[in-house]
Design goal:
about 0% strand; single chain; about 200 residues; mainly alpha
């Protein structure tokens, strides 16, 4: 009985080894059949090259290139990752950064553009209908009044932000006009109310 069990174990081990050799052999054969194009560049290398590129024409070409179909997941992911590098590069022409800020639905690209030094780019991000609520909320606190105004008008802005943010703006805007100073005693309890 023990000899039968040991012979069965030996046979099972040999079968498993043959199966592993067959699978590994097939994988090696498939890998050798897939040829890598001569101009292939790994994603990380392309990303870093675009992120540090000073060639405005190349960056503009990447920014305006149509995205692959979403069904081609690898190509689509690669293209959106490269767009993030292009969006974060200060050498990308302003009109291309504004184009990306207005049209892109991807949060990673919009986050890069929301910290851009150009007010036009941040304003375009604030007006993008695909913004996430938290991103528009960040832009309502931007240093530029224009960006804050566009962000407050975005449909993605939550009602809490719309209610809370304009109060200091209303208070200071009313302070400037003489006729509005008469309204100040009426508005002060409304403004200070949440602070109590």
């Amino acid at each position: 009985m023990t000899e039968d069990m040991s012979s069965q174990d030996t046979t099972a081990v040999e079968t498993a080894e043959n199966t592993v050799e067959t699978v590994v052999g097939n994988a090696d054969e498939q890998a050798s059949n897939q040829e890598v194009p001569s101009d292939f560049e790994p994603l990380t290398a392309t990303y870093e090259r675009l992120r540090h590129s000073t060639d405005a024409a190349e960056l503009s070409e990447f920014a305006r290139r149509p995205l692959p179909d979403r069904s081609e997941q690898a190509a689509f992911s690669r293209a959106t990752a490269l767009l993030e590098a292009v969006a974060g590069n200060a050498h990308t022409p302003l009109e291309d950064r504004v184009f990306l800020a207005e049209t892109m639905p991807f949060p990673n690209i919009l986050v890069k553009l929301s910290t851009d030094e150009s007010v036009e780019v941040r304003k375009a991000v604030a007006g993008n209908a695909n913004d996430k609520n938290w991103l528009v909320g960040r832009l309502t606190k931007d240093e530029s009044l224009e960006v804050r105004d566009v962000a407050l008008r975005n449909k993605q802005t939550s009602w809490r932000i719309r209610v809370w943010i304009p109060r200091p703006l209303i208070f200071w805007d009313l302070w400037g006009s003489t006729s509005s100073r008469m309204l100040l005693p009426c508005l002060l309890p409304w403004y200070v109310g949440p602070l109590l």
